[in-house]
Specification:
By secondary structure, this protein is of the alpha/beta class. It has helices at about 5-15, 15-25, 35-45, 50-55, 75-90, 105-110, 130-135, 160-175, 190-210, 225-230, 230-245, 260-270, 305-320; strands spanning about 65-70, 95-100, 120-125, 140-145, 155-160, 180-185, 215-220, 255, 280-285, 300, 335, 340.
Length: about 350
């Protein structure tokens, strides 16, 4: 049986061979409509077309491209190191591309992902441009590590950040904290884990402590600042806590979006003469290794960072061993890890221990 060619796909999709070549290689996708891209992908799958560059590069000893927003937060450093540990065990090389939450950088890395020397891609966060990532995943195997997102058409290794937020709220409610604050860096749909944690915290208070309040303090952080201000999360935590102390004196517990922001919160509380947890309790998320240092001992959420990093490589490896351009785009694998509360010395009894 004659193998299909780019010309055959072009005829079926009603576009030029040059357009087919660009789309299947993930180049200049912004030049084409979503429908044109889908038509080309559909025709290539139906015809069983396998690009020459994919035929030439099936050697498992190739490169996995790891995409991350930043390396300053030990969360990402630990996650990526665990990925590299597993990748080396399986004979893969790794390449790291840091976006600093810049959409243009994300588009650039998705173009790089289609190069012949890239075997597969792992996003260490949920892509900011999910539809573009999904399009690229039809060319090169891809896995995302982050928040549970059922609308994302990518294989994922995730945690349930909404449940994690409710877990922290239940802990603080049980300690008698009626009024809490949530402190976060940029809070929008492109950072789903941050939003989900906030929603979980708020919903648990609404349900279990309806007379309580959750006051949200957030500060947008540009990609330029992410790149050039190495202590940006600590800085945001500090600044927002100063605001909180002035504007919300009723707050007896602060929940930070992650442990790095929590360290900034901690510094601001200490500078303001507040005792932790006697005056104000403090919680974070991620349980990064500095949170267990003596003197820090943060109450936080364990998110199985190392296990998820290794699992993402194992999942991608399975895709690489059985990957085909014909793979069913509707077949999505989701691996979810359960979060757990780690109670440290930064959370203690609040002033309202009676029932709500």
């Amino acid at each position: 049986m004659k193998k299909p060619t780019i010309k055959d796909i072009a005829a079926a999709a009603g576009v030029s061979p040059a357009s087919v070549s660009m789309i299947l290689n993930g180049r200049n996708l912004s030049r084409f409509t979503e429908q044109t891209i889908q038509n080309v992908y559909r025709a290539s799958r139906q015809m069983g077309y396998v690009s020459k560059k994919r035929q030439r590069h099936k050697n498992p000893n190739e490169t996995i491209l790891i995409v991350c927003p930043s390396l300053m937060n030990p969360y990402y450093a630990t996650l990526i190191q665990s990925m590299e540990q597993e990748a080396r065990l399986r004979g893969y090389l790794t390449m790291i591309f840091t976006t600093y939450w810049d959409k243009a950088a994300e588009r650039e890395v998705l173009e790089i992902a289609t190069e012949p020397y890239i075997s597969g891609v792992i996003f260490s966060m949920i892509p900011q441009q999910p539809r573009l990532a999904e399009e690229t995943s039809r060319i090169v195997p891809m896995v995302a590590v982050g928040d549970r997102a059922y609308t994302l058409k990518l294989d994922t290794v995730d945690v349930n950040n909404y449940s994690a937020g409710r877990m922290v709220a239940a802990h603080l409610i049980g300690l008698g904290h009626k009024h809490v604050a949530y402190v976060s860096t940029t809070l929008n749909e492109e950072h789903s884990s941050r939003v989900k944690r906030c929603e979980g915290l708020s919903d648990e208070y609404f349900q279990s402590c309806p007379s309580g309040t959750v006051t949200v303090y957030s500060q947008d952080v540009s990609s330029h600042k992410e790149l050039y201000v190495t202590g940006v999360e600590h800085e945001v935590g500090y600044a927002l806590t100063c605001r909180c102390l002035k504007e919300s004196p009723q707050v007896t517990a602060i929940v930070a979006i992650n442990d790095m922001v929590a360290y900034g919160v901690r510094a601001a509380l200490i500078d303001a003469g507040k005792r932790i947890p006697e005056d104000i309790s403090l919680c974070g998320f991620d349980n990064i290794y500095p949170s267990r240092f003596p003197g820090v001992d943060l109450t936080t959420i364990e998110h199985a960072i190392v296990e998820r990093g290794r699992s993402s490589i194992r999942l991608l490896s399975e895709k690489l061993r059985g990957h085909s351009d014909l793979i069913d785009e509707n077949a999505i694998t989701r691996v979810e890890y359960q979060s757990s509360l780690v109670v440290g010395s930064t959370s203690g009894a609040g002033p309202c221990q009676s029932s709500f």
